[in-house]
Each structure stands twice: as structure tokens, then as C-alpha cells.
Design a protein that fits this description.
Elements (H helix, E strand, L loop, with lengths): L1 H43 L4 H5 L4 E9 L5 E8 L2 H12 L13 E8 L3
Antiparallel strand pairs: 1-2, 1-3
């Protein structure tokens, strides 16, 4: 009887610890791909030429996902200038995130700041 109770307690503890460690592991892996995606976008997106030409500063907020092919799918994009929005949308469509593991079918949000020096 005591052995049966001890085995039940051990199995229960084992299941709980496996669940907790699996949950922690999943949380850690989802953070790094998001940082990698943001870094890739920050490196790839250039100051929009129209904004440089007209000395326009501002920010662009983008809500997007990455499809199974590694392409950025913009769901919502917002800025203070339509031409800048169109240019950033075009630049984002050319970025491929296929090399970054764990990025697919998740929602991402990034704010790109454009300031003249």
C-alpha cells in the first residue's frame, strides 16, 4: 500500500516537472526568434528615399506575420505619411525570414523610427 502511494506520488511529481520544464523551454524559444526577426528588419529596412528627399522624420508601426515561405505578411501598417507607408511595405515584402527558426504563423509588431542626423 505504501509502495503504491509512493509510486503514484513519484509519477505525479514526474509529470508535473515535465510539464513545467516543457513550458519554460517553449517560452524561451519563442523570444529569440522574435528578437532575430526584429534585428533582421532593422538591418534590412532603409530610410525611405522620399522621406530623405523631403526631410521627413517619423515612425512606422507594423503588425505582421511570417508565412510558411518565410515572407513577411503585413496585416496593419501605420505612419504619418502614405508614401513612407508604401515604401516600407515594399521593403518588407522583399525580406525573407526563412533562416530564422520558429517564426512562422506568429504575430509580430515593430516600430521603425526615422530620424535625420
Amino acid at each position: 500500500m505504501k509502495t503504491t502511494n509512493l509510486i503514484k506520488a513519484f509519477v505525479t511529481l514526474l509529470v508535473i516537472s515535465a510539464f513545467i520544464s516543457g513550458t519554460c523551454y517553449a517560452g524561451k524559444t519563442s523570444v529569440q526568434p522574435a528578437k532575430d526577426v526584429h534585428a533582421l528588419i532593422q538591418q534590412s529596412v532603409k530610410y525611405p528615399p522620399v522621406a530623405l528627399k523631403e526631410s521627413i522624420e517619423g515612425s512606422v508601426e507594423v503588425l505582421f506575420t511570417i508565412n510558411d515561405e518565410g515572407k513577411i505578411v503585413v496585416e496593419k501598417i501605420k505612419s504619418n505619411d502614405k508614401r513612407i507607408t508604401e515604401n516600407i511595405n515594399e521593403q518588407l515584402s522583399k525580406i525573407c525570414c526563412k533562416e530564422i527558426l520558429g517564426t512562422y504563423n506568429q504575430h509580430y509588431r515593430i516600430v521603425l523610427e526615422f530620424k535625420l542626423a
